[in-house]
DNA sequence: TCCATGATGGTCT
DNA sequence: GACCATCATGGAA
């Protein structure tokens, strides 16, 4: 049994929290059974100085969790049909979060396939933030959940430590603002990393897939 | 394997 | 009323 991540480990700046989350395992209890996913791709969003962050224009009912303590889920609804899940970072009053973009299913593969029957390959099960959230069964009701609480329906397990040489960074996916910030982090070699897509209005670097 | 496209609703200007 | 931290699908290559 691996240890849960602590709130203190996440109460740091968003880029540090992002790297720290790589290789960690998200576990969720779903109606079909428990699903565990090893995180291989994340993105950092921060405060009022990051125009791409939901917290950029200040606190609203929607983004309130980002301003709260670290180690909590910030789940939001996007494009009229999908949910995306973040883990909050930084301390109370300082808005920050790390978007969980992709992961590899550790267990249970059978449960995962039942939950996401449309996945063409196993690597697609949690490839992309909305797919990952869908696989873990995350929705509005999970907004604000403490992922460092053993009693929580969604938890974050630490490590094992990843080889720092495998950590890659690049521009965030699908964001127009601040596309020059290399605040996307992923583990090199994973086939579950989502394809890069420039945000609307960002400089279009055709076929911009990283290797 | 790649790419274009439609679906769909909350949030903030 | 525009803009989204997107995905499944189907047809082309």
From TrEMBL:
Keywords for this protein: DNA damage, DNA repair, Hydrolase
* Keyword set includes DNA repair: yes
Domain of life from the UniProt record: Bacteria
Q: Which top EC class is named for this enzyme in its record?
A: hydrolase
Q: Which biological process, per GO, is one annotated for this protein?
A: base-excision repair
For this protein, what is the EC number? 3.2.2.-
GO MF, one term, reads:
alkylbase DNA N-glycosylase activity
Q: Which Pfam families match?
A: Pur_DNA_glyco
Record's keyword annotation contains S-adenosyl-L-methionine: no
Q: Which HAMAP family match?
A: 3MGH
Protein family per UniProt: Belongs to the DNA glycosylase MPG family.
Q: What PANTHER family would the database entry show?
A: DNA-3-METHYLADENINE GLYCOSYLASE
Question: What is the protein named?
Answer: Putative 3-methyladenine DNA glycosylase
Q: State the organism named in the record.
A: Pseudonocardia kunmingensis
